[in-house]
Each structure stands twice: as structure tokens, then as C-alpha cells.
Amino acid sequence: MYGNAKTIATTLSVFFISFSLGCFAQNDAERSSQESLSRFIDAVNSNNPAAQKDYIRAHYLPGFLEVYPVEMHYATLSRLFAEQGKLERPSFSQPEFSDNVFHASAVVHSDKTELWTEITLYFAKNHPTQITGVSVINADFKTVPIDTKINTNRQLKREIKSLTKRLEDKGLFSGTILIANGSKTLLVDSVGFSNKRYKIKNTRTTKYNLGSMNKMFTAVALMQLIEQGKISLDDTIEKFIDSSWLAPEIAQNIKVEHLLSHISGLGSYFNEAYENSPKDHYRSISDYKPLVRSETLKFNPGTQFHYSNTGMLLAGVLVEKISGQNYFDYVRQHVYAPAQMVNSASFELDDPIPNLATGYFPNPMDKTQWKENTYRIPVRGCPAGGDTPPLTIYISSPRPC
């Protein structure tokens, strides 16, 4: 789907594994956790694959590495440097304890993007210097040291326009930004190119690929049908989804609630079959059946969290089955229209849609440093999105026992 406002979604990357409780004095935790966080930051900043892998082998608990191999952890460190550059100005928090682990965080500043990131490391109390979990998220505003005091809307606009210009010059931001206070719009600004090949600049009317933001529209559509009493959160999906989509013994254990909460145990249709197939094969929801029907559960539904593209795709299937409408027609009529989103739709990429931006992904090995994503994404978005599949697999943590 595409819309005329671009939202950057925060990606949560979490690795975690639980180990037995041991004795560890809390007054020692601050010192050891700060040392561990400093070593983690140094490893990221080294941007040295060999050094990063050596660091992981030396400082991650062996059992953690058995569950999630070194290469997976290395991908997190290398991607963090690729996206944020050098991490600086760390601000450490006090460690927090639970029954089986303790954790501590550091907020760090990126010299590349100028963003603040919160890095949290987890430790078992009987292994206080070896890492059992890593979380990397955008820092909460309340935890970020404020360098510039902004007193007026005029100053705010000046600072934001200066930031977007710096990021544009670095090739890190291309899009449209809108800042509002209640119903009053304070700033609308567009920078960069909607098409690099033809040097077409972004404007307020440019339509951007919203990617996984589609999931919110799907959730709203399904909740509307729930409000109307046509389906319940407690219904199992085998009532509506037949074996051409999913094996009955799997569907009978998955509730509607599980799909919407990413606790269904299903994975992602961005699999090898998807990668090896022409992307213009995916125009309607039913076109995804061959990618989904062989899926198995990663865990019993409702017991763990795992971000699932397949789960949200099936939520869209429910919208079609229950409403009797084509998914795209339903969302346009019942979600976009009431919200006055007159410039948003699931456009087909091979249609000559006016003001439709071309998507790109960074490719340092290419002479232009970029590649168009046209051949990597479906020709039309779907209930789960329409963005490029992630290059790194992030594994979410089990719920605490």
C-alpha cells in the first residue's frame, strides 16, 4: 500500500534465553554491566567482522550461542554500525533485577544519523559477565540528553529543517515530514528524490510505500467486523480459512486474537519460494496460498511472541471471507474513506500511477550506492505489507516463565 505520508517504524531486535538463578550482589551489577555495555559499544564501533565475532564468542553465554549462532549475533552488530555509524556519548542506566535475570541499558548517540539508540544487555545472576540477551531499540525521548532548548515553533521548524537537510546531504533521508500540534500543522517539508533515475523530487503529494504499516489497516478492518459481531477475537480461524490456506490441525488451534497479536506461532511467507518467484505473481491475496499452505507452527499459539507476516496476511483473508468484499475494496471503503485518505491505495507497481515514489535499498557495492526495490517486492501490497523482506532475521524473546 502507498500513502502520501511516510512513517519510519521502529524495529525491535531482541535475543533472549533464560538460565537458572544464582547469587549475585546487586551492588556489583552496576559496575559489571557498564563494563559489558562499554565492550559491546566498542565491538560495534570496531566495524571489524573478525573482532566482532571474537567479542561474541568471548562475552556471550555458551548456551545463548547454541540457540542463536555467532553469525546471527554478528549480523546484529554489523547492521547496527551500517545503519547508525559510530556510537558515542553513552549514558548508562541502573541495572534492574527480576527473578531470573538482571539487565542494564545505555543510550548512545549516532554520529551518522544523529539518532539516539537504547541498547539493553541481559545477564543471568549466576553468569553476571556473560550476555544472555540483547535488545536494540530507538531510545525513548525521556531518556535522551537534550542538547538544544527549543522555545518557539519558529525555532522548532528551523532545527527540523536543518536536520532533514543534513540527513538528505548524507543520503540518509528521502521523504516527507509533517509536524503538528493538535489540529495545527507546524511544518510540512519534502526532501530527496522520489525517483533517483530521473531526478524527480519528492513533494507533498508524493505517494510512498508504507510497507508493514498496512498491518494497522488490516487490524482496523478486522476489528470493525468484530465490533459488528460478525466474528470474535476468540474464534478459531479454521471456521473461515480452509485447507487450501492452512492445514486444519494448525488452523483449529489459532484464534483471531493470535493473528492480531503476533502470537499465532506462524512465521513469514517471505521464504525461499517467494524469493525464487516472479514478484508480479502476487496481485491478489489468494496468490499467496502456495507460500503459506505448508507452514508449520514455531510454538503453541498464545504462548510466545513472534512477529508474523503470515499471521497478518491471514487476518486479511478473514476480512475478505467475513465481509464478502475484496480486501482492497473493503479497506478503501471502510478505512481510507472515513479517514479521508484520498491519495492512498494498494497500487499495482506496473500501473503508471502519478506521483508514485520508487523504493530503494542501500547497496555499497554498487556504483550508485543504491538499488531499486522494484524486483524484490510484490507488484501489489497485501494485508501484511508490501515492503522488502528483511535481510537480517530478528528472533523475539520468549515470554518470561
Question: Can you put this structure into words, describing what you see?
Answer:
It is a single chain. It is built from twelve helices and 14 strands. The chain has 401 residues and is of the alpha+beta class. Helices cover 32% and strands 18% of the residues. Helix 1 packs antiparallel against helix 2 (49-59), helix 2 crosses helix 4 (70-84) and helix 6 packs across helix 12 (327-336). The strands form five sheets. Strands 2, 3, 4, 5, 6 and 7 form a six-stranded antiparallel beta sheet that branches. A two-stranded antiparallel sheet has the order 1-12.
Helix coverage percent? 25-40%
Total DSSP E strands: 14
Shape: globular
- Rg over C-alpha atoms, rounded to the nearest angstrom: 23 Å
Relative strand content:
15-25%
Number of H- or I-type helical stretches: 12
Low-pLDDT runs of 5+ residues are 5-13, 17-24, 388-401
Return the string of H and E elements: EEHHHHEEEEEHEEEEEHHHHHHHEE
Kindly name the structural category. Answer: alpha+beta
What does the largest sheet look like? 6 strands, antiparallel
Q: Kindly report how far apart the N and C termini lie.
A: 38 Å
Q: Determine the mean pLDDT.
A: 87
